[in-house]
């Protein structure tokens, strides 16, 4: 059993990582922003002892020394998985709301682990395909873990979407730079997913509280996109459960040290999401976009960038669920919240 610190435990991805950690026999302490969020997570894991699941409050991950106390544990931590970073576009100040928390939170955590948690041997950081995909390249290009999105600061602060993408670029680069410069006692691995879909297991009040990616499935499934399928944008995806397991395997496997991992089974489009819902949920067909309304969500006839996730399969041993399974499980997890 490994003692693990998981940051941002109330989030969509982190909730699945927590499940994977507990199922694989690890002991977890997760950071949350409030006691209320800790209670919500605890309620969803009845029967799990405090020895195996505990909490520490970190109200603001971008604050100086935010993680200094969180990284101290008895028994001491051996691994850290860092997921805490904002992913939404409802912001007033992109630097304050997106860029600073991502960058300062990541570097602050790495410093805290170096200074106060000498027993930690591996840190896994949730990055993003946004840190890799550079759309200035020709669409025949195949991206690998060696690629970086070369977005500038000026581009980053121009709008919330750019700021989110840049927050992943800058925070992951800052993490690798820190490890290279400071030579801490731990090794680093990063996980770089594209669009992340999958069933909701974290606490939400209603469908307005969904993570940004699953909002797309919500809108398609429950009639909001009937008159026009949303643009797909990034034609690569991963199931959150496979992504969660990838994090845990990157924590467990010695050979993952110093590696970036692209995680995706391949291409998809929003039109494929519609098809999956149509086939599995006849009762929802009336609200689905059909005919010309499907066109915006279709896969480009000229093709789209390649994305080489071979390393995730060979080094981590990840196997990927098909899109249809992901869509069915996601819709079933959302249906109880439909009013």
Automatic annotation (TrEMBL):
Its EC number is 1.1.1.283. Keywords: Oxidoreductase. Gene3D superfamilies: NAD(P)-binding Rossmann-like Domain (3.40.50.720). It is an enzyme of class 1 (oxidoreductase). Pfam families: Epimerase. This is Glycine-rich RNA-binding protein 2, mitochondrial. Belongs to the NAD(P)-dependent epimerase/dehydratase family. Dihydroflavonol-4-reductase subfamily. Residues 5-258 form the NAD-dependent epimerase/dehydratase domain. The keyword RNA-binding does not apply. GO terms for molecular function: methylglyoxal reductase (NADPH) activity. The gene is GRP2_5.
């Amino acid at each position: 059993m490994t003692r693990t610190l998981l940051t941002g435990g109330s989030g969509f991805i982190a909730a699945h990582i927590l499940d994977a950690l507990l199922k694989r026999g690890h002991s977890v302490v997760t950071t949350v922003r409030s006691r209320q969020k800790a209670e919500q997570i605890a309620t969803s894991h009845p029967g799990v002892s405090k020895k195996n699941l505990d909490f520490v409050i970190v109200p603001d991950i971008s604050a100086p020394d935010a993680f200094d106390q969180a990284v101290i544990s008895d028994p001491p931590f051996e691994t850290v998985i860092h997921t805490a970073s904002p992913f939404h576009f409802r912001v007033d100040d992109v630097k304050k709301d997106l860029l600073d928390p991502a960058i300062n939170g990541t570097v602050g955590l790495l410093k805290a682990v170096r200074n106060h948690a000498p027993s930690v041997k591996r840190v896994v950081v949730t990055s993003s395909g946004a840190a890799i995909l550079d759309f200035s390249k020709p669409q025949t290009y195949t991206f690998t873990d060696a690629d970086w999105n070369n977005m500038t600061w000026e581009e980053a602060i121009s709008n919330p979407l750019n700021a989110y993408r840049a927050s992943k670029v800058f925070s992951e680069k800052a993490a690798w730079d820190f490890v290279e410069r400071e030579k801490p006692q731990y090794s680093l691995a990063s996980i770089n997913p594209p669009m992340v879909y999958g069933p909701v297991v974290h606490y939400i009040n209603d469908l307005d509280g969904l993570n940004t990616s699953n909002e797309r499935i919500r809108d398609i499934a429950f009639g909001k996109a009937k008159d026009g399928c949303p643009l797909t944008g990034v034609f690569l995806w991963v199931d959150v459960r496979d992504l969660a397991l990838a994090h845990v395997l990157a924590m467990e496997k010695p050979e993952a040290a110093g590696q970036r991992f692209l995680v995706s089974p391949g291409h998809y489009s929003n039109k494929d999401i519609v098809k999956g819902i149509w086939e599995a949920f006849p009762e929802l067909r009336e609200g689905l976009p059909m005919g010309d309304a499907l066109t915006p969500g279709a896969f480009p006839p000229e093709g789209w960038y390649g994305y080489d996730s071979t390393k995730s399969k060979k080094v981590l041993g990840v196997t990927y669920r098909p899109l249809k399974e992901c869509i069915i499980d996601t819709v079933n997890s959302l249906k109880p919240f439909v009013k």
